[in-house]
Amino acid sequence: MESTEKILEVNHLKKYFKSGKGTLKAVDDVSFFIRKGETLGIVGESGCGKTTCGRTCIGIYDRTAGEVLYKGKDVHKLKGREKKAFTKEVQIIFQDPYSSLDPKMKVGDIIAEGLRAHQLCSSKEEERQRVHQLLETVGLNSEHATRYVHEFSGGQRQRIGIARALALEPDFIVCDEPISALDVSIQAQIVNLLIRLQKEKGLTYLFIAHDLSMVKHISNRVAVMYLGTIAEITDAKALYQKPLHPYTQALLSAIPIPDPKVEEEKQRIKLNGELPSPIDPPAGCRFRNRCRYATERCAKERPELREIEPNHFVACHLYDQ
Questions:
Q1: For residues 148 and 109, what is the distance between their CA atoms, to the nearest angstrom?
Q2: pTM of the full predicted structure?
Q3: Any idea what the Cα angle at residue 76 is, between residues 72 and 80, rounded to 5°?
Q4: Where are the beta strands (DSSP E) in the chain?
Q5: What is the pLDDT confidence band of residue 2, given thresholds at 50, 70 and 90?
Q6: How confident is the model at residue 1 (pLDDT cuts 50, 70, 90)?
């Protein structure tokens, strides 16, 4: 059940990488929060910084500036017992089940890794039973524990990844594009599994994806990222019914509609130009060189993320035009 308690608060987060060509501003002044029990979806084109944002939020990457608070505590300052408790409560499901699971380990050992690290089972038998229970929770069989990863399909591998994340009974899970490497027919199964697990276990998700239709299906609220910044953030329903940022409007216009007649008549918004480099982003509004409404003000002044309607935040000078 969704509550008003904020489990994660991100304030003016920046994550820069040094490269031979300059400083890559992967995440550049991003703020949002996630309530306990909800799913916040983050969407955007490849290279917009959504994965870097998710990984910095849980301390896989160090921040460059800003803060991330998990249950009120600064993630990047945790040490000792607090750090260990955090690594138990917060888990990640990776994008590619082919590269995120060790091919030399049996499935049972992959799932039991966290149980052993946190000494959560008092005997081998208890560990074995726990692994079998986790496999069944994600729709696999207990005998799968003795097999190797290469014996499974992509969807089954992602279920193993989900079982591994669930082993420590976390409160918060970053789902980092967990369906993008899977066949379309399998994607809905994995999303429905995540929705069921959230209801059963009271989980909170940060769900990262570039597929807007899937994000709508799983998310309570959606943040749209563009070139390291948040363009718009609001309830999923409001975003799809009344997108205010020109970038969000363009993304939504590209979603195919199952009805061929409606699809044919639909007006698709084409974006100008190419996605700029995060090493040398445009001054002012990041989106201005691809925006059909851009003015001189957009070139000079970076728009702040402002609350335009209750719970609907937009970073655009011209949202009402």
A1: 10
A2: 0.92
A3: 90
A4: 6-19, 22-35, 39-43, 65-70, 73-74, 90-93, 172-176, 204-209, 221-226, 229-235, 306-309, 312-314
A5: low
A6: very low
